């Protein structure tokens, strides 16, 4: 930091650890953020944009419908996911550091972006697993009734949102904080989506079609949510027993819940304040993403 003396910092998302101890979430997500804030203050950084998560306002159990940024950050007992709790701690530290926690016009300005489920090239996590399912011919299996709407965001659009936030923060640096709440950027949080809601299982089947495995409506096998949760429970215990707790199963109850719930976010604030508009549509984003995975798979076969 002393060498680079950055004017702008993008504090990007921490990975979700599946097998790390609880202490890792604290040391990497929370303590790491505090170290970064301290260093940024010392070298005179002007703008810091945080990549948070929409799960800080979601209990990750019930439906989240058209949620806006003014919903409260959840704490126990409503919030049980350690990842969401620690990301909330990091976000609060970053927002609290805005203008040195006061009205210092020439101090660090901060804001936080809360993306929905992001996808794109190199996404070996969420999208990579969906592509693998499609290539195995398992996209015809659907958990629940399939009526659950989801917000997604193509990673290129998410990157654009970060740049917009940076430019808006830098334009605000050195000036008093506006009194109009509708124009505030520093010290604020913003939901980021592709502004095009899809049914969750239509998203999975679109991926399958792009891999060359289209799913006909008559071929869809619907598994009731209760049955999926039972299967997830059995999978968790079986993998725990044979690995003595060192491995994470592919099927979990949490994964079943996420694939059967509604998760939608309101992006009016990001459009109004940041001027955010997704440049890459859902279908084009999926085509780019799946093409990358298919080309990578071809390279490995060669």
UniProtKB/TrEMBL annotation:
<dbReference type="InterPro" id="IPR002225">
    <property type="entry name" value="3Beta_OHSteriod_DH/Estase"/>
</dbReference>
<feature type="domain" description="3-beta hydroxysteroid dehydrogenase/isomerase">
    <location>
        <begin position="10"/>
        <end position="214"/>
    </location>
</feature>
<dbReference type="InterPro" id="IPR050177">
    <property type="entry name" value="Lipid_A_modif_metabolic_enz"/>
</dbReference>
<comment type="similarity">
    <text>Belongs to the 3-beta-HSD family.</text>
</comment>
<dbReference type="GO" id="GO:0016616">
    <property type="term" value="F:oxidoreductase activity, acting on the CH-OH group of donors, NAD or NADP as acceptor"/>
</dbReference>
<dbReference type="Pfam" id="PF01073">
    <property type="entry name" value="3Beta_HSD"/>
</dbReference>
<protein>
    <recommendedName>
        <fullName>3-beta hydroxysteroid dehydrogenase/isomerase domain-containing protein</fullName>
    </recommendedName>
</protein>
<keyword id="KW-0560">Oxidoreductase</keyword>
<dbReference type="GO" id="GO:0006694">
    <property type="term" value="P:steroid biosynthetic process"/>
</dbReference>
<dbReference type="InterPro" id="IPR036291">
    <property type="entry name" value="NAD(P)-bd_dom_sf"/>
</dbReference>
């Amino acid at each position: 930091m002393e060498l680079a003396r950055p004017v702008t910092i993008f504090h990007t998302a921490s990975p979700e650890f599946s097998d790390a101890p609880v202490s890792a979430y604290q040391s990497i997500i929370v303590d790491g953020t505090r170290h970064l804030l301290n260093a940024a203050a010392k070298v005179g950084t002007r703008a810091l944009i945080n990549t948070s998560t929409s799960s800080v306002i979601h209990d990750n159990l019930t439906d989240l419908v058209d949620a806006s940024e003014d919903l409260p950050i959840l704490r126990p007992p409503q919030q049980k996911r350690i990842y969401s709790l620690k990301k909330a701690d990091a976000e609060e530290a970053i927002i609290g550091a805005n203008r040195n926690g006061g009205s210092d016009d020439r101090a660090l300005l901060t804001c936080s972006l809360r993306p929905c489920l992001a996808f794109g090239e190199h996404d070996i996590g969420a999208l990579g697993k969906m592509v693998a399912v499609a290539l195995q011919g398992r996209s015809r299996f659907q958990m629940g009734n399939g009526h659950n709407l989801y917000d997604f965001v193509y990673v290129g659009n998410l990157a654009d949102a970060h740049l917009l936030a940076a430019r808006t923060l830098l334009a605000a640096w050195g000036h008093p904080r506006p009194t109009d709440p509708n124009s505030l950027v520093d010290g604020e949080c913003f939901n980021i989506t592709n502004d095009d809601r899809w049914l969750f299982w239509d998203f999975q089947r679109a991926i399958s079609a792009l891999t060359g495995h289209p799913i006909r409506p008559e071929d869809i096998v619907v598994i009731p949510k209760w049955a999926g949760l039972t299967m997830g429970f059995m999978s968790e215990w079986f993998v725990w027993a044979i690995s003595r707790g060192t491995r994470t199963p592919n099927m979990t109850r949490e994964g079943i819940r996420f694939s059967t719930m509604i998760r939608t976010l309101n992006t009016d604030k990001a459009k109004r304040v940041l001027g955010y508009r997704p440049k890459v549509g859902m279908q084009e984003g999926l085509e780019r993403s799946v093409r990358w995975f298919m080309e990578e798979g071809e390279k490995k076969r060669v």
